Amino acid sequence: MGHITCRGVLFDLDGVLVDSTPCVTRVWHAWAVEHGYDPGEVVKIAHGRRAIETVQLVAPHLDSAAELKELERRELADTDGLTVIDGAAELLAALPPDRWTVVTSGTRALATKRLQVGGLAVPAKLVSADDVTLGKPNPAPYLKGAELLGLSPQDCVVVEDAPSGLKAAVAAGMQSFGVPTTYPPDELREATVLLRSLAQLRVKAQNGVIHLEW
Question: Is 14 a catalytic residue?
Fold first, then answer.
């Protein structure tokens, strides 16, 4: 059994707390087909990235702001098959509410909707694509998450399922847990600790210190 202590936990959303893969795949697959791109490649690029950055990478000639608006509309409307990751509800319940938040590449509206559909708590403050100008793998989102919790980066631990998010955690100077829900383990080598699943993680909070065990 391993053990890490911290003062705050920063969770990615999709693939960590909720499994929205069916929704994300449907929306981006349809978008790629409409625009004449390889759906499999576009879906892979889209995971863990802000939608606007995916559009800019794949189709720089398109109006990314307009495409973002349409993609968000489609993702908000599609929650079929969305499920809560095993162990997520228990983890969040065990953490003091002011010591964790969500740092997502999705918009605030989309993050709120997916948490609500999953029956999970919506943190009072969260970091979304709306709050940063540079998304993961840039460290800005996770640095913003630490700031929201009133903590220094080194006091925070990240839980991620995507290589771009783990790179962001490393760049932010944070330890991280990788969960292989979306990507295979060999693509999550940047993680400090690679879990088999989120359900492995156990939390004890005592005197302002969070103990994470697996």
Answer: yes
